[in-house]
Automatic annotation (TrEMBL):
InterPro entries: Cupin_2 (IPR013096), PKS_Associated_Protein (IPR052044), RmlC-like_jellyroll (IPR014710), RmlC_Cupin_sf (IPR011051). This is Cupin domain-containing protein. It comes from Microbacterium bovistercoris. It holds the Pfam family Cupin_2. Residues 38-97 form the Cupin type-2 domain. It comes from the Bacteria.
Amino acid sequence: MTDDVRNVQEALSTITEHWQPHRLTSLNDYDVKVVKLQGEFVWHTHPETDELFMVVTGRLTIQLRDRDVVLDPGDVFVVPRGVEHCPKATEEVHAVLFEPKGTVNTGDAGGEMTAALQELD
């Protein structure tokens, strides 16, 4: 996988479910994931790591306890480790995430929205 050229738009076109991250590639100890988002996720933290969101299409709101961060296409935002957050997308958003391998999408919250990382075909 690391020797192949990967196309973000092509990869996103294969995803059918929201909030189900797919590994696009890996870099050192990090996964680069693509995901489609719509609706509101769960409030959670990642106690051991930062989480980077990069919006490809759509508008993503990352709710923090003290403010909302709104991301448009091309915008990047890093949620610092341990900061409680809740992503929300009124319309479908396509995004890229950068996280250490093994990072669970629901962080410390767990629950029914926890997704196993999927591989792209």
